[in-house]
User: Fold these one by one.
Assistant:
Number 1:
Amino acid sequence: MTKDQIVQQTKRAIYEVFGDIVDKDIIDKSVVHPLDDPGEWAPRSNAVIYHETGLPNSCDNWQLMEKWSEVSDKIPGDYYVEAMNSAVSAVYEL
């Protein structure tokens, strides 16, 4: 998969897991291609996820780790979400 496809699949996976509590527009704004990441947090990742927009994060709430694991499982292929800090996560390939 290309990084553009992974970004789209990540958005879809987040919506499937968190869509009942987070608006789709927020999800769309929160997941970016690493080349479009203004903070340059994870240039070698496949997607960058910003939590400051309203997406829950597992750093501030460890109980959400299972939910983010579900997001990882829903991204096709061998990809996983890794929390960088409470504001940013990234998608990497195993």
Number 2:
Amino acid sequence: MANTLDRRIQVGEIVVLNIMSMLPHFRSDPKWQLFKVIGGFGMSHTTGGSALYGSFVDGSKCAGNGYWIDKEATEKFQNGEWKITLEEAELMFEEDVKNEI
């Protein structure tokens, strides 16, 4: 198992990171737990590697780990039952793209 979701993660899928894997000053705002995955061996639950590559809502790029994903929070998020909805998150990521242009 290369990620805690125990399934394939799709390119562009937004997951929720475990708050304990984050620096303390990022823990107060749930938007910093959102991570848009763009690649890495950790996308597949059947590979030996767990690396994930992606970005946060501010556009900062990061290499992460598939074991940093909070499975329960990600499932709630993707079902619209978390602190931030999928639609709100997509708008945050979209705004960042506009700011880069």
Number 3:
Amino acid sequence: MHRILPPTFVLLINTCILFLLDLASVIEAYDSHSAYQVAVYTKTVIYMCLNMFVIPVLTISGGNKTIYDLLISSHWSIPRILGKLFIPKSGEFFIILLIEQGVLSAIFYAL
């Protein structure tokens, strides 16, 4: 249970935020359905890019270093940068997250 709970919590937060982005697009009251779909798509892509790429890199780099400090200290070497960003225990979390995302997405869209 302690392995499944954190990824489930992350997925619930992500699902709630995506629902709020959809609701925000409904409130904006677009003239056509395609304009509404474009608005939802744009907001979702921006949120997911920030959520999956930018925020994890900023938090994982840790050590109170900025991304610039990380790049300079590793002399712009990609293997060194990846070595500093790698967390050995995070693999299990992300695998469970992906499995739950697949299952919960199918259930969410089936409703």
